[in-house]
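Subject: Sanity check before I submit

Could someone independently write out the structure tokens for this chain? I want to compare against mine line by line before I put it in a report. The sequence has 124 residues.
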Amino acid sequence: MSPQPHECRVVHADGELDLTTAPEFTRDLEAVRHGTGRLFLIVDLRGVTFMDGSALAPLCAAWDDSHQRFGWTRVVYTRPGVGLLFRAGAVQHRFPRYANTRDARRGVSADPPEQYTPMGDLSA
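---
Independent answer below. Compare away.
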């Protein structure tokens, strides 16, 4: 478990995350990554009703940035479609599911850890 941050930034998304809304989502993720030092970021997707692959690149960029800065990026979601998209994009090991922002902040995943191994079987 990684350390709990003193300052944790949160980005909320609602509605559809697709090709037309991804630029705004990208701007939101970039805006909270200003400054230097460790970056702890929670992306709350509970309000997202549909998400396609266009949201993966900005999420992965945020993940890369936070890890380069010795922090983390965690994603809160409840809809199974988001998890399926992460599996299809082979990024489920980067984005385990968190049930709410409190659990994400504490590092308490909503699913068993073996589900998110980098070499996990995607056919399950």
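---
OP: Matches mine. For the report I'm noting this point. The CA atoms of residues 17 and 24 lie 9 Å apart.
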